[in-house]
Specification:
The structure is a homohexamer of 303-residue chains.
Chain A: H1 10-21, H2 23-29, E1 33-38, H3 40-43, H4 49-61, E2 65-70, H5 73-82, E3 89-90, E4 93-94, H6 98-122, E5 127-130, E6 138-142, E7 155-160, H7 162-169, E8 173-177, E9 179-181, E10 187-189, H8 192-202, E11 207-212, E12 218-219, E13 222-223, E14 226-227, H9 229-237, H10 245-257, E15 262-267, H11 273-279, E16 286-289
Chain lengths: 303, 303, 303, 303, 303, 303
């Protein structure tokens, strides 16, 4: 057939090839859930929201069920300062008194979620914002501080309300702010990376994508393409990971050990990073996956 | 059988009577949607949230589908001032520049909604917060200012996304912040009373309850138990209604003319006002209903 | 808020309180099945049927699935005598020859069921009468008489056709006459209290209410509020229960040992006894429930 | 193939032929509803119940939905007399005072229905007895007596509760006693032939079979195989039909004019009359059908 | 009632009896799957197709789900010869080179299936032709030839795509050609008797009917009415079965040992052989069934 | 964000762009039916089947429901000649006597369908072959020959069994041979282009793709990118279209006039022609579409 005369230019033919090269990846992921965590720093670049909406639209088109989780550290600090409250951190964790908690909630649920949802809907992706209090989506308890200083309303997620999420995923992309509640209704600030990992585990997701503002895990300035959970732990323990990367590595390990087959630390500043990671052989960033001989916590059953 | 000897005290017997007196009202409302608008001023009293949760729980128990809409004027003004922005009103409408819009959105979606949702969930009522941007729930256009001054991002609702609401009502009480969006994703501040009326019309609700901080419509200090839409209009035109009551009367008229059989202006400071209005013959506050001979815009069909 | 001025009288406010005090009980029972056995003697008072219909209507309104079982001893004896057949009892059991069986069937299925169904429907409760022969609802074998005299067509229920009942409960309240059949179609008279217990066990009911014409189990003229199955057996064995109470206690024990959490002997002469038992903290009559450490026959699973 | 050697005897081969000759009739009726009215006089022969059960079983096997309606005149008179009440008839209609009504209800719902249901279930046909009061199945008003004597509790059916019947037909054969109720719950005696016709019309039945104790409509001792509604009316008006046949002809006319394509007066004393009428070309008895050019009241739509 | 006067002739009455005699057999088989294998030699008689369609129509009418499997040996040989390819057999198996495979596929899927489907549809039985390649219905591997000569593209079925069959059976009778495929899409000729047995096992069929051109298994010229699997094996091993009967016996044994309760070798030349086998007590041909004490491979569960 | 440092090469980034450029086309077609007609001459190139399977797999991945229709002229002529039957054509139509009909059926249903189905299944696309006789999928009558010579068993499609197709499309790609039947079961050869058009109209398809062995409609050696139905007719009438193109133009016109928005004549020799036509802005071949002001026969409703 290759010799058949044709009026279709070579350039157009190449497009078909690229589309079809993505087919095996689409087949692999169709019908599964993918959790994407977007960081506050990435979301500050307004030029990245439209391509992100395009990516999620394509995911949904091929039958993938995306879920978005976000934090908003820089924006919280910004509003705090505008209100005269100087942010305080202990070991990288925000000390969250009642005033800071109220600021965090307004920023996360009333600003970042709203902007993400508006951008996705404008890009043709039906999206609905959720905070951890909605239907007790993220149920937490106060984080035990041990011997350290009191961190205030910082929580640890104990349970994810999967039923509500599944109900919503059928009609829209959930955009989840990293605020949690306890049974009495008290709110807590929770780490967004870890919240994303726990949502991924609870939904038996196929992948967790952590969009950051670096190219991935670097060692001596070189991108490390793949790490096992064990290697992640060693890296954290040896201090080989810089401060911002530590919670990402911990979240990736939590996801993989919780049964999510693969977690990826990906450069979210790159437009269409999600599509590149999912649908091209090159992938992007650093992948964390259990090696065949390293036992993981739980089998991921077909939904 | 009234003469039968019994060990059950009279007081207990009376309880059964009160429960059963509510039965005809339950029968009347079961299976229908009731929209309740709670005002920012009412929601500032923390002691009112728990009884409100109890009320909604009972509504749901007898098969009623409640939907909550809220504003948050006082809280918006408060945060604005803390950020150094003095609120400006023209004819009772907030002038909403970009900064004020951001403040309004944070307060409504990130504070008032969150507190309502947390309180309802803590009271055993599954609730999910929604902003007008979620799934383009409240689609608006910028309000035409006519010859008056520019009010900024103040919108008029054009369409309510009924499908998303119906999907959610099946599993939780929607708690809707009076923020809307246009098709490009631009947010708008909208009047909460009118938003509630439009949600009620779109959902073909059986009732609209407007919870306020007065006993109802007063005339010469006396509560007016019932008004027709025409009488509401006359009252507004004649200046007989005070400033805060005008949008409530307009919302009630919009609801009734849009096919909602009855709208009620009720004293939200009274604990369990919702139950009293719905399940007792006395009712509460002022009812607006189309008189039999006054045509309304649309028939409300059985769902 | 308690200090807020209000035009709603205190009396009306108290109503809301009583309604909401019932809410925890409604939550406890919603979605479950409650079997109510009404005795022939109670049903002879025409003034009790309308309040009973009201009670069932409220039960259904809050999502409870009531099932009614009835006997009709006095009415059977009455028609027998009118036809010249003198009723004969041995140890409290009716000797049921072919003629008596025909009389019993006519009275139970053709008179008591009909009256109950008509009364419930007139009270707005959709009801459908069922006899044990309908779809082989109550499948029985002839009761072994041991060394005693021949009791004739008195049966013991072996199987309850749950599928037919579940199918009907979706649309109406089943009103079941205590007549059973064997596989050949031969009818048998069965004890109504025990039939109700077996229906309750088969439907995995949440409660069995036995409406009688006494205030409950009495000891020295005092109402005994609660008994364990063991205590019931002792009471029967020791002769401490009077004749009419014995089958009730046996039925309560059979229900509880079959997995029904609680059985109640309640004064059916008291209007709204069902509501009082279910929705008030005082309850009514005598409750039979397995103590925590007394093993019951079967776990009651959620339906 | 007719010449192929075979070890199968001719007699066996003929059976296949007869089975397959019935196939076109099965195809014609499968999926449709057939209402069969059985008379009290027929049901007095215990030898006819087992073959009738066999017939209904075959109907259900080929996808037909049978519904049974019955009266019980002789049995009512019999019990009346045993209770010392002499039956009184005016123009063939039973004068039904309160005592007679109670007798009729006991006989119809408590004896004839019970026996039919037991016989059908014993024959492997799941059956459930229904009285007109069940779910207000047959809603009636008191028959206007005009200038004639007071007939007492004799009713005319105004409405048939089709929803309940359809719900039941899915799981069992409804066996309906010709007792009706009004909205207040008052019972009425109704003519069983006419009740069957109205049930057939309400269910959009394909056929109404009236099983009688004569071979069909006779004219000069000869069976009339077919009549139009007009001819039926003429026959009744001219006095050409004997007393027992008049209500049958009226019921057949009511059914056909109400949209039932065909009504048949069939000899119920003949075992398997139902099968013969439905599945053989010979049919049985007298058919009443609208001639092509005689307009009928309503089109019968496929269900 | 037998003495009742009737105008219905005895001959007609006998028809009802024969119909009802079939009822127990209908009850036994309704809701089950019956696999019928029709041989190429039988299908060459055009007079047999219409009665076969009638049979399947009756089966479907009483709720049986028939599936047809066919071969076409004589027709394959015929077309081969017309194309100049002389058929070669080794031990009764067709040597299938690429040309013969193409001929076999055209004959089976393009001629025999087409004729069967056309005949069934013309007889009112909705039918759809399927080849083993359709949805990988019959997945095979190349038959290991052992030391013998190369048989070419002759396959052994490894898996039957039950999901596709079940989906189709709901709307039509599947007519399956005995062609299979492997995972690469390579076609294979498979034995039709064995294919039918494997389809029957995979569908948990109630019966396998093998329609042949002899009266059944003969011993000394006498029809053997029943054989156990063990007896079948002995018969094959002892050479007591003639060449054509060997694969039928092997298929019957495979079906019964795979959990199909009964397999029958029936004379397909006899019109309505299927009906006679299924619905008359005489049956037809030879039945193979596991004796009570001979364990079979698998329990047949109710569908 | 374009200035962000990234380790992802430009080449990889371009892939994301091409994937996302296809998104608007996917959105346009998702949920719709696309009918693809593949010609016998195209299907003779074995190298084209695997890319065609890839194309259909991608279509299904993005929610499109493809249906394949095929002819097989060259292959029919080939087998005819091998069997000693010289093909005869009148005005481009094959004279189809009984022998030729049998050959055509074997080739279409037993060879071409089988090969297409095997190739699609091997490429991961579940496919099921259908002939017009399956469930009377293509119901035809004999083509009226007018004054011309007798063409034999050449038919015109009168009706397409949409229900069967819809049932199958849910689980597999239907591959339809252009053979039809009449109600008596007689087979007819039908034109494959026209059959595809009629299937497209019956299924309310979004597009009809006619894969040919030329680049499209040519005028003076130049590809004509778009034609209205009127221009197609003129082209045929003026003799401006060569012989092979006439039935394609007629089919395109029939489809568009029957309500299919667009029909395309595409070069099937080009691998992935289907993807290029559907998912790139360049498209491929010649499009036939109703101009806005040219009325079409029927509105295409959303399914």
């Amino acid at each position: 057939m290759s010799g058949a005369p044709s009026l279709v230019p070579q350039r157009t033919r190449a497009k078909a090839r690229i589309l079809l090269d993505a087919l095996p990846y689409m087949r692999e992921h169709t019908g599964t859930t993918i959790v994407v965590k977007v960081g506050g720093s990435v979301m500050e670049d307004p030029g990245l929201l439209a391509p992100f909406a395009e990516d999620l639209s394509l995911l949904r088109m091929v039958g993938i069920r995306p879920v978005v989780v976000h934090g908003g550290g820089p924006q919280i600090s910004d509003l705090s300062r505008r209100l005269g409250i100087e942010p305080v951190f202990v070991d990288g964790l925000r000390v969250t008194d009642a005033s800071t908690l109220e600021v965090a909630r307004m920023v996360l649920a009333g600003k970042v979620t709203e902007e993400l949802v508006a951008g996705l809907n404008a890009g043709g992706v039906p999206a609905v914002g959720l905070s951890g209090g909605d239907g007790r989506l993220l149920l937490a308890r106060r984080r035990a501080d041990g011997d350290g200083p009191d961190l205030g309303f910082v929580g640890e997620i104990e349970e994810v309300n999967v039923a509500l999420l599944e109900h919503l995923i059928d009609v829209a992309v959930p955009v989840i702010a990293s605020m949690a509640v306890d049974r009495s209704g008290q709110a807590y600030n929770v780490n967004a990376d870890l919240a994303a990992a726990q949502v991924a585990v609870a939904l038996r997701a196929h992948k967790l994508l952590l969009l950051t503002d670096v190219p991935g895990v670097l060692r001596d300035g070189e991108l490390v393409p793949e790490l096992s959970p064990l290697e992640c732990r060693d890296l954290v323990a040896s201090g080989g990971a810089d401060g911002g990367m530590v919670p990402k590595l911990e979240a990736a390990v939590a996801a993989v050990e919780g049964g999510v087959p693969r977690a990826h630390v990906v450069d979210g500043r790159l437009p269409h990073a999600t599509i590149l990671e999912l649908f091209t052989p090159e992938g992007a960033g650093t992948m964390v996956a259990a090696p065949v001989d390293e036992p993981v916590g739980e089998e991921v059953a077909a939904p």
